[in-house]
Specification:
Blueprint: H1 3-27, E1 29-30, H2 32-37, H3 39-49, E2 65-68, H4 74-83, H5 124-137, E3 144-149, H6 156-167, E4 173-179, E5 182-183, E6 186-187, H7 188-192, H8 197-203, E7 207-212, H9 216-227, E8 234-239, H10 247-251, E9 258-259, H11 262-269
Parallel strand pairs: 2-3, 3-4, 4-8, 7-8
Antiparallel strand pairs: 1-9, 5-6
Helix pairs in contact: 1-3, 1-4, 1-11, 3-9, 5-6
Bound molecules: thiamine diphosphate and magnesium ion (MG).
Length: 272
């Protein structure tokens, strides 16, 4: 990645974080922690790696897919999709309100550009694996990206889907684990530990890389390496910080879901 691209992506990730803080703040409450922690990886995917997407044709057959299996990070997807022109930015003000097209959790039947409905944790990776297998059978060049959470990884269905993916050699599947070490009400390590997570995914047949999930260049290189995998699906462990880039969230003891006042979001974003 050259310095120009790095500078562009750094600025874009900051803008998207501010958009998400404003969007959730305008509603007044939401999953700020898990939205902030995936923002750098989402930025690299959508502004550097993704292929064959078209905001005027969101269901284009050969598009790369992005599945946000940790569906409570819907607002992270929405700020990206609005920025890319899938729907008017005004929609962001309707987040989670009655009649909205932007519910707090991803819904493919409501939001242009959302490839899979999610929210019931553990299910999205199975859908992603199915899409990856279908793409292979169809000789479709699509890459399937799937974000999962570390708390979400306590769901047995995640491991069923991982076995299936390796068994079918789904090298067009890139799973990104948001390893922010926190789940809804506490540290993952204290509730049901995932460590050693890299060894687990390796044992399940994945090509595993572990990176700083806020290092745009490292994420970009890891995705390039994953795309070069010949016969294994990929796991990229994103070592992240829950709430990253929202100072009030990083400072909170638990930032899983927070109330955000107008004063808080304006101060954080500098938008008055
Ligand atoms: C099957 C299921 N059980 C419980 C919940 C409630 N829930 C929503 S988010 C969450 C915590 C998820 O933690 P993690 O995967 O670490 O995501 P993060 O908040 O770090 O983004 C839980 C338990 C759910 N959505 N689905
Ligand atoms: Mg987590």
């Amino acid at each position: 990645m050259d310095s120009c691209e790095l500078q562009f992506l750094t600025g874009k990730a900051r803008q998207l974080r501010d958009d998400a803080i404003e969007t959730i703040g305008t509603f007044g409450v939401g999953h700020i922690g898990g939205v902030m922690s995936v923002m750098d990886a989402l930025t690299v995917i959508y502004y550097s790696k993704i292929k064959n997407i078209d905001c005027k044709n969101p269901r284009k057959a050969d598009r790369d897919r992005v599945i946000m299996s940790k569906g409570h990070a819907g607002p992270a997807m929405y700020v990206v999709l609005a920025d890319l022109g899938y729907f008017p930015r005004e929609w962001l003000k309707t987040l989670n309100k009655n009649g909205t097209n932007l519910p707090s959790h991803c819904d493919m039947n409501k939001t242009p550009g959302i490839d899979m409905t999610a929210g019931s944790l553990g299910q999205g990776l199975s859908a992603a694996a199915g899409m990856a297998l279908a793409a292979k059978l169809d000789n479709n060049p699509a890459t399937i990206y799937c974000f999962i959470g570390d708390g979400e990884s306590q769901e047995g269905q995640i491991w069923e889907a991982s076995m299936f993916s390796a068994s079918h050699k789904l090298n067009n599947l890139i799973v990104l684990l948001d390893y922010n070490k926190m789940q809804l009400d506490g540290p993952v390590a204290e509730i049901n530990d995932l460590a050693p997570v890299e060894k687990k995914w390796e044992a399940f047949g994945f090509f595993v890389q572990s990176v700083d999930g806020h290092d745009l260049e490292a994420i970009s290189n890891a995705i390039d390496n994953a795309k070069a995998s010949i016969d294994k699906p990929s796991m990229i462990v994103l070592n992240t910080v829950k709430g990253k880039g929202a100072s009030f969230a990083e400072a909170a003891k638990n930032c899983h879901s927070m109330s955000i006042s107008e004063e808080m979001w304006r101060k954080e974003t500098g938008r008055y």
